[in-house]
Amino acid sequence: MSQSRLTELTWREVRRAGEQGIAVLPIGSQEQHAGHLPMGTDTLLVEEVLDRALAVLGQEPSAPEVVRLPALPFGHSPHHLFAAAVSLSAATLGAVLDDVLDSLVTSGYRRVMVVNGHGGNDEIMRLAVKRFALRARVTVAACSYWTVTADEDEDEGEAGRPDVTPGHAGWFETSLMLAARPELVRTPVPARTPVEPPPLFDHPPHPGLTVERHGEWERVDGSTDDASGADADRGGRLLDDRVRGLARAIRAFDAASR
């Protein structure tokens, strides 16, 4: 496998890589993550998962050629502006993704994968991918890193706790950060004070409903669940599961789009 960083290639190398390779774009956010995680948590985690996945693929001689783009560090985060965030509107983020995809196609790529690290980007990213494939001769894939798992350890629960995955500044993200970037986690992590009634965005009153109520994020102090039980060892296993899952997803995308 040949893997490169777009930033370090010459334009001729970019063109050659585009003939057979896959361009991979990680996208994240800059937003509050309660009082114990840094603003760039989503960007840091998606980069960590992607870079480790590419390292796994790099050990396989028949793996695809991949060009890793710099991470887009800003996402759609208006719901976190009550505290602090650098947010793009949905229209702006969609336009940025359109422009990046357009640029890659013009530069010779016909296969692109977007890997997301922030829940607020997910719907916008998927819509951008669907819309772009309708107007350009390109095969585009998209995923959020927490949705791709290796599934090998499902019986042992290594895919995580579904009720709080991915959550926000809670048990899942804090466990991953304790494994990946422990120096950036402010410890001890305080227990989350329960609120009544529970927020509707996290506990909709009926399955299948999406419900948003004004002021909910501020009322829960910027997190979805209690992170005080987060654990670096469990976080390492959760991280490894997503790494192997993303490596498989990239490999599958390559096989299906040649």
Describe, in plain words, how this protein is organized in 3D.
The chain has 258 residues and is an alpha/beta fold. Strands 1-4-2-6-7 form a 5-stranded parallel β-sheet, with helices on both faces. A two-stranded antiparallel ribbon has the order 3-5. It has a single domain, classed as 3-Layer(aba) Sandwich (Rossmann fold), CATH 3.40.50. It is built from 7 helices and 7 strands; from the N terminus they run βαββαββαβαβααα.
Descriptive labels:
258 residues; alpha/beta; Rossmann fold; 5-stranded parallel sheet; 7 strands
Q: In order across it, which strands form the biggest sheet?
A: 1-4-2-6-7
The level 1 CATH classification is Alpha Beta
Main β-sheet description: 5 strands, parallel
Indicate the radius of gyration in whole angstroms: 19 Å
Based on secondary structure, the structural category is alpha/beta
Brief characterization of the structure:
The chain has 258 residues and is an alpha/beta fold. The chain has helices at residues 11-20, 41-58, 90-106, 122-135, 171-180, 216-219, 232-257, and strands at residues 3-5, 22-27, 30-31, 66-68, 85-86, 111-116, 139-144.
